[in-house]
Amino acid sequence: xxxxxxxxxxxxxxxxxxxxxxxxxxxxxxxxxxxxxxxxxxxxxxxxxxxxxxxxxxxxxxxxxxxxxxxxxxxxxxxxxxxxxxxxxxxxxxxxxxxxxxxxxxxxxxxxxxxxxxxxxxxxxxxxxxxxxxxxxxxxxxxxxxxxxxxxxxxxxxxxxxxxxxxxxxxxxxxxxxxxxxxxxxxxxxxxxxxxxxxxxxxxxxxxxxxxxxxxxxxxxxxxxxxxxxxxxxxxxxxxxxxxxxxxxxxxxxxxxxxxxxxxxxxxxxxxxxxxxxxxxxxxxxxxxxxxxxxxxxxxxxxxxxxxxxxxxxxxxxxxxxxxxxxxxxxxxxxxxxxxxxxxxxxxxxxxxxxxxxxxxx
Length: 362
Description:
Elements: E1 4-7, H1 12-29, E2 36-40, H2 46-52, E3 56-59, H3 71-74, H4 76-94, E4 98-101, H5 107-116, E5 121-125, H6 132-137, E6 143-146, E7 157-158, H7 165-168, H8 176-182, E8 190-195, H9 202-217, E9 220-225, E10 240-243, H10 249-255, E11 258-261, H11 265-273, E12 278-280, H12 289-293, H13 295-300, E13 303-305, H14 313-318, H15 320-324, H16 327-337, H17 345-361
Parallel strand pairs: 1-2, 1-4, 2-3, 4-5, 5-6, 6-7, 8-9, 8-11, 9-10, 11-12, 12-13
């Protein structure tokens, strides 16, 4: 049986695709959890999600790339070599025949160790701007897959975002009315879903909260995921439901007539797949990957992009809100989104992983 090491972690955007591909390897090729192991860090979400999925996890040091000269930067080289050596030993102990990497702090040492061992590498990049680890790993392999167009990875093949089969091929697709009822909303009213990710987005929350009376007075209702670091607004009118966190995003998106959201890679991919008209408010910090993640949706007419600084109650009231009241525009956006979603990314990557092993054996 093929022995696979999956590497990556830190955020849900790295861990969830990893778990989706592990699921596909089991379903398509009969791999057992014992045939797979994961290399990640002790600090990332993988420390909780990987064991919950029944997979073994080996941890290595979390090594952010130094951005400026410091004593910690001077120690980066020896610490990196130590992580490479530990990865080398894990690959040998597991008798790895292939490494599937998803980016994040854990990946760079694993890629180097796999290259030194002449172990095939398959890479998936979730963002439209590739991180350091995957840019490094792409030098060691021709098997580079992406969720979006990623200029920094020449020769990469776009397959979409690997997602759990429960999301891409649910046995019973929830209806909009049933999903709305689940959250205590009217089953028939148009529903605006608002989410800023698991931690939330303070500016989005503040602006949407200010506009809730306007939205409700126009016959809509609001399902608002405020994020774990933000309080749920109190004394809101009927037709507003606020949640700190929700682990049933399948029902959240099923309830949506339209969505206001950050533009993380997983969120954009799910919204594309489900053909939901979107207003994306990219996170303004970082290397600009969120704006680029949403570029295909914007170019096709499936989404509107609003800069975080412009997402104020005054601006939204005169730009976004008229769009949401335009039934014809929402139908055009929904139609434009229908050609963007990719449901079989996990299966495509699983096939590439197995094909790379066969090529190496030949």
